[in-house]
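User: Sequence in, structure out. Go.
Assistant: Echoing your sequence, followed by the structure tokens.
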Amino acid sequence: MNPLNWLETIVASILTFFHKVLSFVFDPDSGWAWGLSIVCLVVLIRILLIPLFVKQIKSQRNMQLIQPQVKEIQRKYAGDRERTSQELMKLYKETGTNPLSSCLPILAQAPIFFALFQVLQGIAQSHSKGGMSTELLTSAHNATVFGAPLYATFTHRTDTANPSATAIVTVILIVLMTVTTFLTQRQLIVKNSAADNPMVQQQKILLYVFPFIFAISGINFPVGVLLYWLTTNIWTMCQQFYVIRNSPAPGTPAEAALEARKAAKAAKKASASGAIESGLLDGELNTNTKTQRNQPSRKSRKKKN
């Protein structure tokens, strides 16, 4: 028995809901209606995951701030692994830091990703998953995006009506998914990592490992799942850009850039304020001068005898 049957039902219900809404704009049987339903599903999920993302950012920042203390504990108890672990756990508890928080958004999405994969597999096999009706199942099965069915994979492209279109669409989606994964990770390393952060080297390794894994495994992902993953990558990249720009980690290039923007903004504001005050002062001086110039001269009157 599949323990995620309930999640498949939720995913299928959300998909059919968005499909019903989008059917007012697009052909209900088109790939656009079903493809955009998947995009809407991603947006909804990522909105719900925002609290976890905020927790992830705070945890990563705390981890960077306590690195000197971590190094000191590791140096002090170098020969005692058990004591080192105890002291580190104590430090994490005192500072409210959870090393696993950085994985929460990914871990939370994993079951949803698997449930969507199962629903799309059901569509490919014309076997209802998640309680999808026969009519909707047939509609989704026949829907195509630029000639590629939503259930199609690069590996099984020859099983589709248009293998060439399926190959082109899946390759483009795999490349875009890989590139966005790389850019998202690179953005984090280049802009929001301190020079003395010992985790940078590990992150640099993952910078190339994750895209490679996605590129290899992507050939077995259905078009719908590739669309899901590409959309969530774009959301992550944009969300991360906003956070790094407005709330960077201490001691990072992003923080230096933020301080430079604040300084430039303050200087511009001071310059504008000075210009206004100077203009007002000049206006007062001009008014006083004009008033003095326009005062009539008093004529002397002769006394009558």
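User: And one key feature?
Assistant: Residues 5-257 form one domain.
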